Each structure stands twice: as structure tokens, then as C-alpha cells.
Amino acid sequence: MTSVTTRIRTLLVCAALVISLVVVALLAPLPFAVLVPGPTADVLGAQRGTPVIAVEGARTRETTGELRLATVVSVTPPDASVKSSEVVGAWFDEHRAVVPRDGVYPAGKSIEQIAQHNVQEMNDSQEAAAAAALRHLGLSPKKVRVRLTLPDVGGPSAGLMFALGIIDKIEGDGRGGDLTGGRTIGGTGTIAADGTVGAVGGIELKEQAVRRDGVRNFLIPRSQCATALTARPEGLRLIPVRTLDDALDALKALRGAGGTVPSC
What Gene3D superfamilies does this protein map onto (predicted)? Predict the structure, then answer.
């Protein structure tokens, strides 16, 4: 009897230790950040009463439809880490993503430095977008100035949509119509001054963001087709592009003005 009691006590002690270790592991902070779908914004519209796109030195036109960029938001503050339990929960939640913290907040940077970094990335993206759009239009950046204003959005992933918005504001489809054909078009992608479209982070969450806001056609970098397909929300068409010209051709096809709409 004493032997059995001793075994039971030993098992209970071991179980308590295991449970304690599990609890500690679940509560331990990890160097990750949790991302969720963020707001979307129409680059053809206004934010806080200020037009997102303002042009000097060239005539602009009234537009219809929307060119809506997508964002993701970190729910993990720059000076915090997530608990193991949060990481586990996020892995099984399609509306959240867990990424290395350094991928969201550069290591060794203060909160102020991180904010400045994001603003600089956005500024660089805006300059590249303006250069790519004016290059397509055959306009000189010395004569035509573009000002892009979008508060509370950082990073480079809005470049493609900014470039399309500038072209729509100045030229439209070249025949008096809109690039959008009056539709709401979503999109994401970095852009270089030569019009090359690059990959972005959090594309799975950006798909959810645009679909939530009524988008049915979503322009994405072609290199991210496979990733985007794994999380594509029902009713969302993925339109892959490699360049600004590809995006313009895709919008032309969507308007029924010729060509075929590409798909992943």
C-alpha cells in the first residue's frame, strides 16, 4: 500500500511540474509581433479633408470609382513581445499573422526611430510612384509636381496604387474615362521609378482587408501569387502584375477595352 501511495505522489508531483512548465511556456514573452488586417484607403479620394493626390503643373480630371490600397496593423506595441499563448492562438486564426518582431520593428531602434523609418519608407515610395507615373505620361518632374498625403500609413507597399492614382488623375484611360471604369479596385505592391512592381509583407491580411471593404478585384505582385492563393477570401479575384504597364493593361481588360485580365 505504501508503495502504491508513493507512486501516486510521485506522479502527482511530476504532473504538477509539467503543468507548471506548460503554464510558464504559455506566458513567456517571445520576439514576435501579431498583425491584423488594417484599414484601406482610396488614393483618388481625400483623407481628413485633404486630397491624397495633388498635382501642380498639369491639368487634373474628376474621377469616379476607387483605387483602394491595403494595409496591415501590428497589435503588438514596438516595446513589447507576445506571449506564447498568443502566438499559438494566432497560428490558428486566419485573421491574424505572427511574424518575427524584427521584421516589423527594426532591431535596436527606439519607438521614435521606428516611426521615422516608416515615414521615410513611405516618402521614398511616394517619390518612386510619382516618378513612375510621370515617366509613363511623358511628363517632366521638373514641371509637374505631385504631392501625396496619407496620414497614419507607413512603409513602401502603397507605391503601385499611388502611381495608378496619379495617372488616373492626370490622364485617365486616355479617352476621357477612368482607369477604374467606375469600379472599386484594390491593390498592393511596391514600385520602382522604372515601373517595376515588388513584393510586400502581410499580403494574406491585405486580401482580407480589401475584401472586407467591398473590393472584388485585387492587384498584387506576380511573385506573390502562390502565397496569396492560399488565403484568398471568397469572391476576391487576384490580378498579378510585374510592372505598372501590366497593371494598366489589366485595368484596361477589366473595363472591357481589350486584352485579358491576368489571374494567379
Answer: 3.30.230.10
